């Protein structure tokens, strides 16, 4: 459900959209697949709509871009005046949060808790230290610098109070980054918006995190999972009315002294993961969950990760593990039901 802070925006966008839609309601495109795309959150988005009626793509894109701008102004760590950036720079121990930021941070802390800290929204300073942040550090960090910064990396140093939407920080060196979950949340926001616009068959993709509803032009929405060891599709999934997210080590790494280091950092050690997990894919109802869980599964020992997924309703996973350049699969209990030809 879209949060209160967006209700008025969505209401007026809906009214404007429906008025113009009525003007062109006599036009039919014979179930053409309408595609809208753009840039957001440091990545790209693409929306595909299967509709028998005319769709004003330009108007719809403007409305979607406005929604995404609102989200970016909350979650961006690159915009100095975003809500999250202001929070990170605040010297206050108690900080009032918007409904959106509170919801996403609350979800993030939940996954930190059930993973015993393998997933942690405060890990960003170490990610930056390893060269994957805006400071663009280009040398391998020392053990001393890692241990120094790791003192301020722990989800246990922050807490939320739902009675007044406030965040408490134990110290001012805590830095929160929600990039591993915010794109999934953006997918859910766009999904709910399109439903309010009375679309029933569509796919939303923000940076590779997807959620589908209804049907594609021909049949189900078919989403491929990449083979991390090649440029091919490893397998295909059918995920009508579900979300899917994949995280992997193969698409973002740095090299120091001829050694590759993954962009995915273990918050408990302060070092890039070295567990031979190539990729993790999660299918769930909401994309906010799939996004966060896919990241978590890259860090946590795979058997523990699969056990966690098996205990979350309507959620499945596929972990691809490298065994001497041969892929080994680890699946949750009912992942196979989503595999298609």
Which radius of gyration do the C-alpha atoms yield?
Answer: 21 Å
Uncertain spans, ≥5 residues at pLDDT below 50? 1-30
Averaged pLDDT, please? 88
| Fraction of residues in helix | 25-40%
Tell me the distance between the termini: 33 Å
Number of distinct helices: 9
Which class of secondary structure composition applies to the elements? Answer: alpha+beta
Order of helices and strands: HEEHHEHHHEEHEEEEEEEEEEHHEEE
Largest sheet: 8 strands, antiparallel
Strand order of the largest sheet: 1-2-6-7-10-15-16-17
Shape: globular
Question: Would you count the extended β strands for me?
Answer: 18
Taken as a percent bin, the fraction of beta residues is 25-35%
Task: Give an account of the 3D structure.
The longest helix has 20 residues, at 4-23. Helices cover 34% and strands 28% of the residues. The strands form five sheets. Strands 1-2-6-7-10-15-16-17 form an eight-stranded antiparallel β-sheet. The chain has 341 residues and is α+β, with helices and mostly antiparallel strands. A hairpin with a 2-residue loop joins strand 11 and strand 12 (259-262). It has helices at residues 4-23, 57-75, 83-88, 99-114, 124-132, 143-150, 182-196, 287-299, 302-310; strands spanning 28-40, 43-53, 94-96, 158-161, 166-169, 202-206, 209-213, 222-226, 233-238, 243-248, 253-256, 259-262, 265-266, 271-272, 277-284, 316-322, 327-331, 339-340. Helix 4 (99-114) packs parallel to helix 8 (287-299) and helix 7 runs antiparallel to helix 8 (287-299).
Characterize this entry briefly.
The chain has 341 residues and is of the alpha+beta class.
């Amino acid at each position: 459900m879209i949060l209160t802070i967006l209700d008025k925006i969505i209401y007026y966008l809906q009214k404007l959209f429906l008025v113009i839609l009525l003007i062109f309601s006599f036009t039919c495109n014979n179930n053409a697949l309408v595609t809208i795309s753009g840039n957001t959150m440091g990545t790209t988005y693409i929306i595909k709509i299967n509709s028998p009626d005319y769709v004003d793509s330009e108007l719809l894109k403007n409305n979607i871009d406005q929604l995404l701008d609102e989200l970016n102004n909350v979650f961006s760590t690159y915009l100095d005046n975003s809500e999250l950036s202001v929070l990170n720079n605040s010297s206050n121990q108690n900080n009032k949060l918007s409904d959106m930021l509170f919801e996403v941070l609350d979800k993030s802390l939940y996954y930190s808790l059930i993973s015993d800290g393998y997933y942690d929204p405060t890990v960003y300073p170490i990610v930056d230290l390893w060269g994957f942040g805006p400071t663009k550090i280009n040398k391998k960090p020392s053990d001393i610098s890692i241990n120094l910064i790791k003192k301020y990396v722990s989800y246990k140093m922050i807490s939320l109070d739902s009675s007044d939407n406030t965040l408490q920080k134990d110290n001012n060196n805590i830095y929160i980054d929600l990039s591993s979950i915010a794109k999934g949340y953006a997918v859910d926001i766009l999904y709910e918006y399109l439903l309010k616009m009375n679309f029933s068959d569509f796919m939303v993709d923000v940076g590779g995190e997807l959620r589908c509803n209804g049907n594609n032009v021909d049949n189900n929405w078919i989403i491929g999972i990449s083979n991390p060891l090649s440029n091919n599709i490893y397998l295909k999934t059918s995920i009508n009315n579900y979300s899917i997210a994949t995280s992997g080590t193969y698409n973002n790494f740095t090299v120091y002294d001829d050694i590759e280091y993954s962009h995915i950092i273990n918050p408990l050690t302060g070092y890039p993961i070295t567990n031979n997990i190539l990729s993790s894919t999660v299918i769930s109802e909401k994309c906010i969950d799939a996004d966060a869980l896919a990241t978590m599964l890259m860090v946590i020992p795979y058997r523990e990760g699969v056990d966690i997924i098996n205990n979350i309703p309507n959620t499945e996973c596929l972990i691809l593990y490298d065994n001497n350049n041969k892929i080994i699969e680890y699946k949750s209990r009912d992942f196979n039901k989503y595999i298609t030809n």
